[in-house]
Amino acid sequence: MRTRQDHRLERLDDHWLRLPNRWDVPVEICAGPGVPLEPAAVDEALSLLETADTLARLAEATGFDGPEPRITRVVLTPDLHKGAGIPIGTVLETENALLPQAVGNDVNCGMRLEVTSLRADRVRSRLDRLEKRLRHLFFEGGRRVALTPAQREALLREGLPGLLLTGDTPWRGLQPTDADDAVDRAHLPWFPARTAEAFADWIGSAGGASYDSIIGGIGGGNHFVELQYVSEVHDPAAAHAWGLTPGTVVLMAHSGSLSLGHQANGTALDLLRAGWPAGLPRPRNGILPFLPGERTEAARRRYLDAFANAANFALGNRFFLALTMRAGLAAEYGELTSRPLYDAPHNLFWPDGDRTVHRKGATPAGGHAETAGGPHALWGEPVIVPGSMGASSFVLRGHGNPRSLASACHGAGRRVPRGATARGGDAELDAFLREFRIVTPLDHRDPLVARRSDVMAAWRRDLKQEAPWAYKDIGPVVSSLAAGGVATPVAELRPLLTVKG
DNA sequence: ATGTGC
């Protein structure tokens, strides 16, 4: 299928497009002819580029005498769609500038993939019983992760490795493994958090160990925890190395930093507004950057600490989500192993000297250079691309393509805006729910449910926003990544059971 | 996307 091309885009070859702009910033999109691109998202990308002017004006107004702050490259992924100010599916490379909004509110939203010792036929044989267990564990008060204030603080400051060193943290008799430790240590190499002051309320909310109302929650929107099985192998050598043999059951968790990332981003915007030079108009696109230097040092440091705290929390939360799923599986099928293959961040930046790569709704796809010395040096970075509910997901291996800023898409991409899914579609949703095994929170319209604080409730309207027809077909999206030299498929995964936040 | 709408 060929979709009509946006007149502002120029096709470079079969799988790359260019967005010409008056700032001469290289803006490239990896998308084949079968991938629809939302015009509103292209509008938003052009509006983002006005930040090039903001950087120049801010530097002048503040007498900034360091090296020129600039946008050096933008990559838009094939799952591009309109976000709040900056498109979801944007990779932004800057020099001498940091843009909190280019990672978005949900700091370190990401994807964890674990390879279990279970086989699909065994899991399939008792899905009814497993479903009941998971509904209880995730939504009906069965989660109950107990952490002391010291443990909460350690999680924020030093991530999961820090938490594991702070007293006993067994949960339902399950302990993290060496593989967890290796994945979690590899995840956050950039800057440890110094202070958790922004989250003092959450840390200090109990005297002793108490059950946590936040950690272990899935979140909403497109977040989920899913059991899948390997249905097809596309790259036998890499699949074998990663344990992705046909019929193997895997666990996928997509979740973010819940309320913590929002608080971190809010802190950044408050600080940026407070420090904005008097007399300089605020930018039309609403995007406020940090420039380096002493003038902004204190504010930047406070933001980076809150950012790292939220990022650490998100990684830890995905670990707890996996642990919850492991607990359900162990209760139903007996002892098992579940080894994390990867935990990939979607919303994050990496300052590296003067250069910063920001990703908002995009996933790293490093090759040999980016993974050198690590466990994935041989095959490249695992790239996890989930399809919409009920559809296949893919695991690919990254090629570190500099054209893509070593980045790939983080999903199939929304086709219908959230707001446009409210009307109709109820019969289709019912049919979908009969066909696929989707474990959802309890119905929020039920007055008995709404009054109970120990259960999760959700609206049907939210579920409709995540219906399969609201998303693009994942096939052309994955083909674009492969043909565009970004990442190549290793294995295809089909859903067995989805726990939907 | 957010412990639950402007």
UniProtKB/TrEMBL annotation:
Binding site for Mn(2+) 1: 106, 223
Reactions mediated catalytically: a 3'-end 3'-phospho-ribonucleotide-RNA + a 5'-end dephospho-ribonucleoside-RNA + GTP = a ribonucleotidyl-ribonucleotide-RNA + GMP + diphosphate
Gene3D superfamilies: tRNA-splicing ligase RtcB (3.90.1860.10)
Binding site for Mn(2+) 2: 254, 346
Keywords noted in UniProt: GTP-binding, Ligase, Manganese, Metal-binding, Nucleotide-binding, RNA repair
Active-site residue list: 410
A family per Pfam: RtcB
GO terms, biological process: RNA processing; RNA repair
Residues given in the record as GMP binding sites: 222-226, 346-347, 386-389, 393, 410-413, 500
Organism: Actinomadura namibiensis
Superkingdom of the organism of origin: Bacteria
The family this protein is said to belong to: Belongs to the RtcB family.
Subunit structure: Monomer.
Coiled coil: none
EC number(s) stated in the UniProt entry for this protein: 6.5.1.-
Designated name of the protein: tRNA-splicing ligase RtcB
Cofactor annotation remark: Binds 2 manganese ions per subunit.
